[in-house]
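Subject: Interface between my chains keeps coming out wrong

I've been trying for a while to get a sensible model of this assembly. When I model each chain on its own everything looks fine, but I need the whole thing in one frame so I can look at the contacts. Pasting all components below, labels as-is. Any help appreciated, I'm running out of ideas.
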Amino acid sequence: MTADAVRRNAASATRGIVRSINRGISHYLFRRLFKAVFTIFFVTTLIFFIIRLMPSNPIEVYINELIVQYSFTYEDARNQAASLFAIDLDAPMHIQYLDYFSHLLRGDLGTSLRSPGTTVLSVIAKFLPWTLFSLGTGLLISFTLGISLGMVMAYKRESFLEPILAGIGSILSSVPNYVIGILLVVFLGVRWELVPISQMRGSMTPGIQPGLNPTFVADIFFHAALPIATYVLTTIGGWMLSMKSSTIGTLGEDYVSVARARGLPEARITTAYVGRNAALPLFTQLAISIGFVVGGSILIEQIFVYQGIGYQLLVAISNRDYPVMQGIFLIITASVIASNFLADFLYSRLDPRVRITGRE
Amino acid sequence: MRQTVSLYQRSGVERVKNLLRGIGSFLRLIASNRVGLLGFIIVIFFILLSTVGPRLVPLDTKTKVAQIYVPPSWEHPLGTDHQGRDVWSQIVHGGKDILYVAFLTGLISTFIGVFFGSLSAIIGGGFDSLMTTLADIWLTIPQFPLLAVLAGFIKLDSLSLLALILAVLGWAGLFRAVRAQVFSLKERDYVEAAHALDLGLGHIIFSEILPNMMSYIAISFTFAMTSAIYAQTSLVFLGLVPISTSNWGVMISLAWTRGAIFFRDSIYYIMSPILAIALLQLALVWMSRSLEAVFNPRLRVGE
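Reply #2:
Try treating it as a single job with all components included. I did that and got this:
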């Protein structure tokens, strides 16, 4: 075989591998995407039937309320309800269901019952960004910090600090998130008066011009500081402990010993060999925990009176504002599913095994 | 055939003996781990506090204006609340509901998880993949918002109903865990033998597979309890569950709305239920983690 033929063979082999990598990834992502879309469809259907089949059907409740409080006639009340819920109450169930979906696909989530004229979509557009901002920042800080601390714990497991860190991690990860939120308010705000909790309420100080200017950025971080601190404190323990055991497992792997034997610089072994492989299982965990943390935002935002989507969901539930409730729940689920998908995508980028075979 | 079956059925005495032996080995496993033992002792303490305690300490319901937010003393070990009532007596009486809901949720969700998990693993095929897909989808739905939305539709004023809803919402996690366990157990010889003897699905699940994953079920049970305690107290704290009796969640909610944000002296009032809940959660987690470490040798590396 000539040198040229060898080169050609090698080139085609490389091309083959690249092709199969691409196929693997697209196949994997395609399945994930399909699952994500199906889950959203499932949840929407679930909500549709919950609202219509519950013993205290919200539409009936609303009709009754109009009749009793505003002395509407039954016909008027019914028409009003139908227009607010954007449904035809006389149509058979399957037609209503199709109608509901066609509205949803057009991005029409209905209008609020309590403040007529306000679309559910505008409520979401107004409050969702704040939750995404505070929760996203919190998760990012806690994930990076937790992973680093976990690695330090694994490397220095003989040190006296390790059991202390492990104890703190274990306590933080088992105590309910609202407990930590309340403790922050009671101790930092009321008892020691370290932070001005009443000024920190809300998502921003009224009157500040939104935009990419230092005052605005500083202001939103000032208001989000306590929610972010709570998200970090309640999730960091889990990352620390998982990363510690994952790193200890990775340190025993052959490829790490080989890398050491090859005389690679320790810093490179720590980041590219140990860190990267040890962090892999945590990405799946990140995906699972997102749903839980988002759920917790209802409590956290209530405690700090932070005007995010979780706070609005609670307001809608207390007001029995069903269209808003339904819309916010859908958007929360959709964001959880989207972030799951994102975590899967990151995972597939980080783990060559997933990239090539399309399997976990 | 019938005679063969009766040979395999154990007598009542033997069953009790087996049960005692199971409990004995469970206790030994817990005691082998210091943190786990501590958790176990704290859990027992809270159970005693909430079952025996109310008989010894009467609930203080009298409003005493002169004694609002009194710091701890011999008379009031945890101080008094916004109406001058003793906080300690409220703590003693406030755990009952929470433990009841937690236990009931644990029981129901363990039953659901074990039943469908083993059914799915044993039947396999289309049913299994349908159930697994359903569980996967269910796990993506954020549980707490769903629960909060449900609380807007259903009046959750009965503790048992609340437990039932919590258990049904949390079915997927336990289902997946049990299914994986049964998958590994069903290949064992004694299960195959039971199959060969045609002992029926119920017998195989409840008499052959279940006893062999008892400790594992105990872990799942404690896990279901912690999530039930979290969900229940959170709902009460947010005011979504109309529970009027004395309950740690109600105490936090009252302490929070009536004083914690304004009065520095209210600290003993709000801290008492918070510490009770946090400690109970921590103890349950410690207990189950130590069990996990015992059963999963891979985790022991990290200790």
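Reply #3:
Confirming on my end. Residues 1-8, 297-303 of chain B have pLDDT under 50 and may be disordered.
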